Write the structure tokens for this entry.
Amino acid sequence: MKKRLAVLVVAIGLVAAACSSSATTETTTTTAETTTTTGGPDGGMPETAPASVIAEDQTSDGTAIVIKSVDLPAAGFIAVHADNDGSPGAVIGHSDLLPAGTSTDVSVVLDTPINDDSVLWPMAHIDMDEDGEYTFVPPDNAIDVPGLTADGDVAMVPVKVDVSDEASAPTAAGSEISIKNFAFGPADITISVGETVRWTNDEDSIGHTTTSDDGIWNSGMLNPGDTFEQTFTEPGTFTYFCSIHPSMTASITVNG
Ligand SMILES: [Cu+2]
């Protein structure tokens, strides 16, 4: 620490001498920042502030999330924490080593993929032992501690992650039908020729089918979570039912 202070004082002296016309306070600030960001080789600990994390709510397949921007005072990582009642819980993934400064669109692969819509907490961590590896397994091995904002708070942000199948296969509006509580919803829809209707069994434990009255399609058993798709290539009104629960009826009107 003494050695670093000496380096700092000498550096300030040099800069002050080099540009004696500039204000002393400004010169001091600039020099201090330069010294701290390059700290490490002289034995000093990496700085933990100021760090910041910017991330937006997003749709994901559950295996990775993207952090829009991260600012680090020293080399470090983004660690993604699971949610624990509104605050960060266990770490479920982390980035590769990021340099000091700003990194954008950082993708973090989740060691534990998420299956449901979740809140996750990307958090800045500093590579305190400067080994390039993320070392943070509380309580015994919490070496690479969180980065702090200029205000001294942990640099992190909650992100809503929407894990939806539709993300990969968008369908036209009005063509999604949910099977729930022994009913098709919406029961009667209108689409255009060429559109695809997708049924999803959203029950907790009941199987159903979507079966055309005229034998045009029959999904067979759809267990909870299963989907079935049918593309309508001709105009008309098509009624259908559940072959297990025939009182479940509905219709699709296809406009030409
Ligand atoms: Cu049924």
About this structure: The CA atoms of residues 183 and 202 lie 10 Å apart. The longest strand covers residues 64-72.
